[in-house]
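pinging the channel bc i need a second pair of eyes. not urgent but kinda urgent?? the chain im working w is below, pasted from the shared doc
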Amino acid sequence: MLASRRLFHQFLVDSFSTIESDRLRYMRDHQKDLRAAMYKGLTEAIVSGDCVANVTGKRIVLPASFVGGARYMIQNYQDAMTICSWAAYPDYADTSTGITAASMYRQNTGAGIGKKRARKAVAKGGSSNISQINHIPDFMHSYVESITDVKSDGNCGYRVIALGHTNNEDDYDFIKKSMLDELQLHKQDYLKIYGGGERLSYIRNALLPAKRKARRHGVALIDKWLTFPDMGHIVASILGKVVVKLTKHGASETFFPLRGVPSSNPSSLIICLGAIPGHYVHVNLKDGCPIPPTSIQWKQHCSTEAIVWESYFVDRQANFTKLMKDHMVHHKKDVRAGSKSCYPIDL
């Protein structure tokens, strides 16, 4: 049957049509029952005075397997981004069923590997050639020494941290275990930061080994990914280093250790993560470059002796704030003048 080619395709289509016809026939033959259940709830809502549609009815959570649902679409988008990180972004989309997977693989393997190597190459000086740099603030491009990509398996955030700390991204399991130990040893401190045990339990479960099987292509489940700002405090505290998150998609922040004092030269103790949609990359910053403002949560919950950390970076953070304001003013002027830039406006 599998060797029947087009006849096999026709068999699949006919089988799907048969199943779909059975579903439609059931709905046609049970209209009375279906409508009774539907109109009963609506009638009761109207009688009780609930006439606003968005607050009437029962919430139904669709599983990720439901075709066309929100979770289904998000899951497929993430799968597509993982494939693109391996084989580069497509030049065009072809939905024709006449092209087999094997032929597409043969045509794109060579180009895909070449593009993957190009993305991982270290670019110095001309940092605009790095595709990932477009996801960090424009005014920081000249301060980027290099960008290093890591494996897109859902552990990319932990891999970036391991790469910046031990120069080996495969040490990410050690990073996650150290983060778990930090949560256990200083549980009361993090309960205050997270505002209760519910968020603390979520962060803890995210660091524990997965009980369920990983998603397709070996990518970790979403609830296991590195998250900011919650985990930024943990990483900075276990490593005794400054953790910087740079991104255009949200707030860029700096995280200092919650306890302890810095060494004689804390300016060299920086790990920078570039946050792009669904992925993290390691950003190697130039010495003395601007860094984002400090996380508000750190200022509220750091120990007395740890306050000195921020004093070493005040000038660099002030420079970042100034560059950001100048960029926003310049961008607004371009918009008023009718800029032809294709980038969205950052609000």
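so Confidence is low (pLDDT under 50) at residues 95-129, 339-347. and Residues 15-59 form one domain. — does that match what u expected or am i reading it wrong
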